[in-house]
Amino acid sequence: xxxxxxxxxxxxxxxxxxxxxxxxxxxxxxxxxxxxxxxxxxxxxxxxxxxxxxxxxxxxxxxxxxxxxxxxxxxxxxxxxxxxxxxxxxxxxxxxxxxxxxxxxxxxxxxxxxxxxxxxxxxxxxxxxxxxxxxxxxxxxxxxxxxxxxxxxxxxxxxxxxxxxxxxxxxxxxxxxxxxxxxxxxxxxxxxxxxxxxxxxxxxxxxxxxxxxxxxxxxxxxxxxxxxxxxxxxxxxxxxxxxxxxxxxx
Amino acid sequence: xxxxxxxxxxxxxxxxxxxxxxxxxxxxxxxxxxxxxxxxxxxxxxxxxxxxxxxxxxxxxxxxxxxxxxxxxxxxxxxxxxxxxxxxxxxxxxxxxxxxxxxxxxxxxxxxxxxxxxxxxxxxxxxxxxxxxxxxxxxxxxxxxxxxxxxxxxxxxxxxxxxxxxxxxxxxxxxxxxxxxxxxxxxxxxxxxxxxxxxxxxxxxxxxxxxxxxxxxxxxxxxxxxxxxxxxxxxxxxxxxxxxxxxxxxxxxx
Lengths: 250, 254
Prior knowledge:
- The structure holds two protein chains of two kinds.
- Helices cover 38% and strands 26% of the residues of chain A.
- By secondary structure, chain A is α/β, with parallel strands linked by helices.
- In chain A, β7 (161-165), α6 and β8 form a beta-alpha-beta unit.
- In chain A, α4 (114-127) crosses α5.
- By secondary structure, chain B is an all-alpha fold.
- Chain B has helices at residues 3-31, 36-46, 51-74, 82-120, 123-129, 134-171, 177-187, 190-217, 222-253.
- In chain B, α4 (82-120) packs across α7.
- Classes of the chains: A alpha/beta, B mainly alpha.
């Protein structure tokens, strides 16, 4: 399988805080890669660098064979049509109902007729089970419904790749399972390349083809979930087993 | 680095940021299609919804001005010139500044709160991620709406202020309405109106840029949005008052 995303020696700092310190990573076309790591380790930053919401200090990012590092905002627009982003809390527009939220990227691209927009939006809302909530505003949606609406908005342009930022955070286990199944379905049915940022281990084992573990600004581990289960890396082991490796067992 | 140089640095940083926003906004305004629905919505929000605040401010300002002027001019036996003073003061100075302060505070705070809330909930990032330009979607419609609507509100305030002066002249100072309005129209020049309205256009421009910039820079949740909103009200008021002096000097030179 060829690489769809390629990160080469990525550095990114915010003031004195060096978040990413030489990240190298590849994501193959059609696979689901989970990026695991503690809070504030730069997982979301890496996703935002992928579509130009942030720029790396050094290093290069290649999307679908094209070096996008240092692209102009206009050039990023083309990338964002192929790579969509599902935000941690959905980032649905408060002033629009579910239908208009999902229709937004289609209308913005100005490539589709009203009828086509309607057809596509209803099709995607049906896929995420929200077709009965088209006229509901985000404030009246539950956490799970927000995530599903955000997912519908991410896939409505039929992108080649989706970046999921903490797709199951703040959800009950059953809703989280529904979201995980949807991520899997997107990959299987639509063949979408997926990068999932999470620190939810159950979610990771459910959706991952491969796992990358971000620690101290670098990828400390990349491999399959089965390889991760037998890893010697103490912090990743702690992550998988749900215990702090620095604290003695009691 | 002591606190003064730190504040100075932050001041330059702010000035640089707002200059870049101004450049991007003007560029976007001239090169991209306008969001007419958003512009009309903002005009309604600013214009129609500010009507009561303009009415109260302008009428009472006109009445107070007539009372104070009559009190001051009475010593010189010039009480009859109340109409002239009210008209000149309202059109050239008080309506543009007071309405910009009142409406600007209200609208600017609302803009910062709205855009700031969008910023901290990642909706502005979402706009970019979904292929939209946040400046075209958020800043340009507000700027166009405020720059066109605020002068109209000031024009209304001019009329209402003069009407407030008429109420006091007629019912308290015993100056006839006909006499009052004859003096008003004899003195009122087109250039006075234009100078007041042009100043308002600049105020509108400053208020909107400050409000949008503060909103887009808000961070840290509700607390950050609150701070940004307060900063908008304070800063836009200061900018209105300071720029008023320089704009007045400029317009008096012509």
